[in-house]
Amino acid sequence: MTPDVLSQSEIDSLLDILTSGDVDFEEISQASSEKNIKGYDFRRPDKFSKDQLRAIQMIHESFSRQLTTSLSTMVRSIVTCEVASVDQVAYEEFVRSMVQPTVMGVLEMYPLEGNAVIDMNPSLVFSIIDRLLGGKGEIFGKPRDLTDIESTVIERVFMKMLEILEDSWSTVVDVRFRFESMESNPFFVQICPGTDMVLLVTLKVSVGDVEGMVSLCIPYFVMEPVMDKLSSQIWFASTGKNKEQDSRSFLVSSMGTVRVPLSLELGDTVLSLSDIMRLQVGDVIRLDSATDDPVKIRVGSRVKFTGRPGTVDGRYSAEVLDVAWDGSLEEYEEG
């Protein structure tokens, strides 16, 4: 770095001030001490830029919003999830910060090489397991290792979380997360040397009255091939592109798999309450419709079609004759 060089006139002015005694040395000393000095540890160099950390935070904010909805449905309770921190630390520092025993899943990130880990606080794990098995989410006793049945239950939760994580990461990088194994002792999981820098994303999750942390740890060398794609500008560009079209196609595909009840209404009549109370097995109720009248076909609770009753291969059935709603079928599909 080239130092600033004073001109001759500046040197003369400085000498005149020093000779006259008008300079305040205490003010100069105080101004020097107020300078912002940031420490730098050469043994732990920063690998991620601020813009990259910002993009990663936005990815996981989207993940936390989706996880809130999905986990609430799964455990049938109020769930809140938010990003607590996004930081870069040494791997051994991350390992030493965890409790024992813990619940740690080892992940693969295809097509990236290497492993990542996801850690869930034991109190949160046992609360989720208790709710999934029909309980109220209560925690009994001290943290312990999971049984085989408990491991299978919480593995399903991890798998659901990884599906949502893939969807959140797909806005920037196409990554496939695969659950590999589960460990209770963090010191048995060595996904990288202890001095290597890792990305640490910490989520604060609450299930009912129980709160806990969920941590995602990814080594730097695993993410290095896609570091150029991690920027807030790329994230904003990818999330804004065709957002309305993508949302519509997602809703259409989701609604296509929804199962709704379909029923046939052969006719109706009106009876007094006293007549209904006197009904017995074998009584015949006369309907206010003829045998050749079209029947009403209900989707859910609404009449959507009219049809003609009959049989097919010995089973009761109905042939759709007309659409019962106002307007044409094309107008309905466009709407």
From TrEMBL:
Ranges where the Flagellar motor switch protein FliN-like C-terminal domain occurs = 256-323
Checking InterPro entries in the record gives: CheC-like_sf, Flag_FliM, FliN-like_C, SpoA-like_sf
User: What keywords sit in the KW lines?
Assistant: Bacterial flagellum, Cell membrane, Cell projection, Chemotaxis, Cilium, Flagellar rotation, Flagellum, Membrane
Entry's Gene Ontology molecular function annotations: cytoskeletal motor activity
Task: Name a biological process GO annotation.
Answer: positive chemotaxis
Please indicate if the UniProt record lists Cytoplasm as a keyword.
Answer: no
A Gene Ontology cellular-component term: plasma membrane
Q: Which SUPFAM superfamilies match?
A: CheC-like (SSF103039), Surface presentation of antigens (SPOA) (SSF101801)
Cellular location of this protein?
A: Bacterial flagellum basal body; Cell membrane
Coiled-coil positions: none
Provide the topology term for how it sits in the membrane: Peripheral membrane protein
* UniProt xrefs under NCBIfam families: fliM_switch
The Swiss-Prot or TrEMBL record describes its family as follows:
Belongs to the FliM family.
Q: Provide the protein name.
A: Flagellar motor switch protein FliM
Organism per entry: Dethiosulfovibrio salsuginis
